[in-house]
Amino acid sequence: MQLADLNALSRDFIPTPTMPVLFIGHGSPMNAIEENEFATGWQKVAAGLPKPNAILCISAHWETNGTWVTAMEQPRTIHDFYGFPKALFDVQYNAPGSPALARLTSETIQTTGVGLDQDWGLDHGAWSVLKHMYPDATIPVLQMSLNKNQPPEWHYSLAQELRLLRNRGVLIIGSGNMVHNLGMMNWRLPDAGFDWADEANNMIKRFIQENNSLLLTQYHQLGREISMAVPTPEHYLPLLYILGLQQKEEAISFFNDKTVFGSISMTSLQIGN
């Protein structure tokens, strides 16, 4: 698609100052209904952001063949978990969708086809966080899926094609966890991390601060701690999307910087102001 065509397609999203981008460590679905330190951190960050025209979330919990973006008028609230209290299943986050933004997102990406999805909705990687950040649920929300057949470098590069959206008032959020090893969780450590988990988290943070995209995309070569921290890629890949959206000399700030239950990092970051 030519630039003129993209500009016409984005007529519903007039040019704006560059929006910040966020990576959110979302952790347990229970964070959706608990007023804890992480919910407070999300609320505080949202209060300091310009009000978005729309939100595009890349969640760890939507892996697909190919790349898709939700394109329905009213996405459903997906309760993609089990074994939690009924109060959590009762939550509905009734934010509208935006077929216009879905089409703009699809056409902005040139290196791969992006399908328009009518079935998915908003999974807990999106709504458990947005419920605290934007509780009135009036801002349109879309999700973009993770192509499970592509390597980390591909995801990092794809993110760079979404930069136009930052200048259309779209808040892009990656929702996952830097350290996410459910198999090694210890419920007796609700406020602490294992040494290896803290070491991995600090290593990832250091590479982010150094803008070392090479090592961040080749994380599987970084040794035992990172291998334990990222046993599967889906919770890590949303971080690469946010880092791929960073522009030159944009500031990075961390928040909710804590490891819980031994092997889950809630560390989150904001790029830009």
UniProtKB/TrEMBL annotation:
Belongs to the DODA-type extradiol aromatic ring-opening dioxygenase family. The keyword Oxidoreductase applies. GO terms for molecular function: ferrous iron binding; oxidoreductase activity, acting on single donors with incorporation of molecular oxygen, incorporation of two atoms of oxygen; zinc ion binding. This is Aromatic ring-opening dioxygenase, catalytic subunit, LigB family. It comes from Sediminibacterium ginsengisoli. It comes from the Bacteria. Gene3D superfamilies: LigB-like (3.40.830.10). The keyword Metal-binding applies. It holds the Pfam family LigB.
